[in-house]
Design a protein that fits this description.
single chain; alpha+beta; six-stranded antiparallel barrel; four-stranded antiparallel beta sheet; 19 strands; elongated
């Protein structure tokens, strides 16, 4: 009898251990949702939100740009010949009209001297024939022949003088001359690059605006130029635009002009161009990350009575951080700004207000 009691106690103990080991992992879940829990038993979702208010928006867009010299030219010789003199130092500033290269002009000079001597003879001959014509000593045909020879000699002299002038390559404008590509004694022709000349007291900034902003920029508008190698922000003005949208990139090519007296902006370099596109007064402005979209349109989540309520909106101007709301949100509405990917309409929420 005592043995049977011991066996019974052992069996009951074993059953108790088994029941303990295989008890429900979440007894609270088995007991049902707690009071105040959200749908399906989940607690309210913690979200950040802000109270919408009307304020002015300064709309700016930043786009990449390229720095170009205000004027730039490749210096080449218009005639073939040997360089006998280089009259500048590489990288220095030169004045408009300053002689930079001289081509050997001895042969042309001799031809020009010959043409001038011949011209003087023909001028004398024409003068005598004119006097004889007035006296009736020669026919008009004789005089016209002499006048024609004189005209041909004058043209030949001007041609040689023009060719002689081309033996001196001068700066077409004031600027900085770059590295020369030839030395004295080099034989050159029109295909040979001698050096480059750039005017950089002012520089052009070429950039492209997205099509959405094409109508919001005009000649004289202010832009700000920044480069990686300087902390200075350079003010510039819109000089011109192409007035035609590039069909491949859907952008409008624009050119600005910027003072560069200290030559801090280097032509050919990359720049960031900040374009001011106007302002929107007394508009509802929301952070860009508060905006969602689906196949019905653009919407935000409003916090109302502890629930997340979607509100479809229409938008206006935008910049890198803010979006102008034209309709769908009123001043004083509480707009949810976090956890938007997990939110569902009518979800229970716990709101923490931010700025």
């Amino acid at each position: 009898m005592r043995k049977s009691l011991i066996v019974l106690l052992l069996v009951v103990g074993a059953l108790g251990i088994i029941l303990f080991l295989f008890r429900p992992a979440n007894q609270e879940a088995a007991m049902g949702p707690k009071k105040g829990a959200g749908p399906g038993g989940a607690p309210p979702m913690a979200v950040q939100a802000l109270v919408a208010k009307a304020e002015a928006m300064r709309n700016r867009v930043t786009v990449p740009g390229t720095i170009l010299p205000n004027e730039s030219v490749e210096l080449r010789s218009e005639i073939a010949g040997k360089i006998i003199e280089i009259q500048f130092n590489e990288g220095e500033s030169v004045k408009q009209g300053q002689a930079l290269f001289r081509i050997d002009d001895r042969e042309l000079s001799a031809q020009a001297d010959q043409a001038k001597a011949n011209l003087q003879l023909l001028e004398s001959a024409e003068s005598r024939r004119k006097a004889l014509l007035n006296q009736g000593g020669i026919s008009s045909e004789d005089y016209e022949r002499a006048a024609g020879e004189l005209a041909m000699a004058q043209a030949q002299t001007k041609l040689l003088e023009a060719r002689l002038a081309k033996t001196v390559i001068r700066a077409p404008f004031s600027g900085l001359v770059g590295l020369r590509q030839v030395s004295e004694g080099s034989f050159v022709d029109a295909s040979k690059l001698l050096a480059r000349l750039q005017s950089t007291d002012r520089v052009k900034i070429d950039f492209s605006l997205p099509e959405a902003y094409a109508s919001q920029v005009a000649i004289g508008d202010s832009v700000t130029v920044r480069v990686r190698y300087s902390k200075v922000a350079f003010p510039a003005k819109v000089l011109a635009s192409d007035r035609r949208i590039d069909p491949q990139s859907n952008t409008l090519p624009v050119r600005a002009i910027c003072d560069n007296k200290n030559h801090q902006l280097i032509p050919g370099g990359f720049a960031e161009v900040e374009v001011y596109l106007g302002s929107a007064a007394s508009s509802i402005l929301l952070p860009a990350n508060a905006i969602n979209s689906d196949n019905r349109g653009t919407y935000v989540f409003l916090a109302k009575n502890g629930k997340a309520i979607p509100a479809y909106v229409s938008t206006g101007l935008r910049n890198e951080t803010q979006v102008e709301i034209l309709s769908g949100v009123l001043a004083g509405d509480t707009v949810i700004t976090s956890g938007l990917m997990q939110l569902r309409p009518e979800a229970s929420i716990k709101v923490t207000l931010g700025s």
